[in-house]
Automatic annotation (TrEMBL):
Organism classification: Bacteria, Pseudomonadati, Pseudomonadota, Alphaproteobacteria, Rhodospirillales
InterPro entries: Cas4_exonuclease, CRISPR-assoc_prot_Cas4, Dna2/Cas4_DUF83, PDDEXK-like_dom_sf
Alphabetical GO biological process terms: defense response to virus
Broadest EC class assigned to this enzyme: hydrolase
Gene transcribed to yield this protein: cas4
Cited NCBIfam families: cas4
Function (record text): CRISPR (clustered regularly interspaced short palindromic repeat) is an adaptive immune system that provides protection against mobile genetic elements (viruses, transposable elements and conjugative plasmids). CRISPR clusters contain sequences complementary to antecedent mobile elements and target invading nucleic acids. CRISPR clusters are transcribed and processed into CRISPR RNA (crRNA).
Name of the protein in question: CRISPR-associated exonuclease Cas4
Source organism (scientific name): Niveispirillum cyanobacteriorum
PANTHER family reported for this sequence: CRISPR-ASSOCIATED EXONUCLEASE CAS4, DNA REPLICATION ATP-DEPENDENT HELICASE_NUCLEASE DNA2
Keyword Manganese: yes
Family: Belongs to the CRISPR-associated exonuclease Cas4 family.
Manner of cofactor binding, per the entry note: Mg(2+) or Mn(2+) required for ssDNA cleavage activity.
Cofactor (UniProt): [4Fe-4S] cluster; Mg(2+); Mn(2+); iron-sulfur cluster
UniProt keyword terms in alphabetical order: Antiviral defense, Exonuclease, Hydrolase, Iron, Iron-sulfur, Manganese, Metal-binding, Nuclease
An annotated Gene Ontology molecular function: exonuclease activity
Length: 204
């Protein structure tokens, strides 16, 4: 039976960081916090105060609920600036810009929601990083849009299957993850090959 529950926008970022982490959070409903997630939560609490302001020609909406029926996505935008009526999403992140595209995909997913909600193209947005205190502007080009749609489909397939991906231990990545004690990536990724052991015993 297919899972019709909407996919949280944060799941796309989790999936690109680690599919197993995504499943633990969004399929198994597990969570643990560390210093990094606490910093991120505090940063979002500051940004996610609902309201609207205007400065010059720019109207700013905070904590705007988002929905994309086409991809079955749901979430909340930290900030959406309306520039001449055209939405410009701004997502707040701790740390600094990353080598992978997880943050960009999450922001692009917001843009796809806004395009459906406002019925007009959203060509770019920005990521604001707490460590650098600067915005990184992101263009929603064809490659990023395709990757975002692909990731949403992969998460939907995982949720529909009800199967958590197996662990793949990566010291640097796993060391940053708040779910490491729940995931147990090192021992589970190197579990004994029971089936192989049985085959060897039967041959002997």
């Amino acid at each position: 039976m297919e899972n019709d529950d909407p996919i949280p926008l944060s799941a796309l970022q989790h999936w690109l960081f680690c599919p197993r982490q995504c499943a633990l959070i969004h399929l198994e409903r597990q969570w643990a916090e560390n210093a990094a997630t606490a910093d991120g939560r505090i940063l979002h609490e500051r940004a996610d105060q609902p309201g609207r302001t205007r400065r010059g020609e720019v109207r700013t909406l905070r904590a705007l609920p988002l929905r994309c029926h086409r991809l079955n996505l749901v979430g909340v935008a930290d900030v959406v600036e309306l520039r001449g009526g055209i939405p410009f999403p701004v997502e707040y992140k701790r740390g600094r810009p990353k080598s992978h595209r997880a943050d960009e995909v999450q922001l692009c997913a917001q843009a796809l929601c806004l395009e459906e909600m406002f019925d007009q193209p959203v060509s770019q947005g920005a990521l604001f990083y707490g460590e650098t205190r600067r915005r990184t502007e992101i263009v929603f080009d064809a490659d990023l849009r395709a990757l975002t749609v692909q990731v949403a489909a992969e998460i939907a397939a995982m949720l529909n299957s009800g199967t958590t991906p197996p662990p793949a231990f990566e010291a640097r990545k796993c060391g940053q993850c708040s779910l490491i004690d729940l995931c147990q990536p090192r021992p589970l990724a190197h579990h004994p090959d029971v089936a192989g052991w049985l085959r060897r015993q039967l041959r002997d």
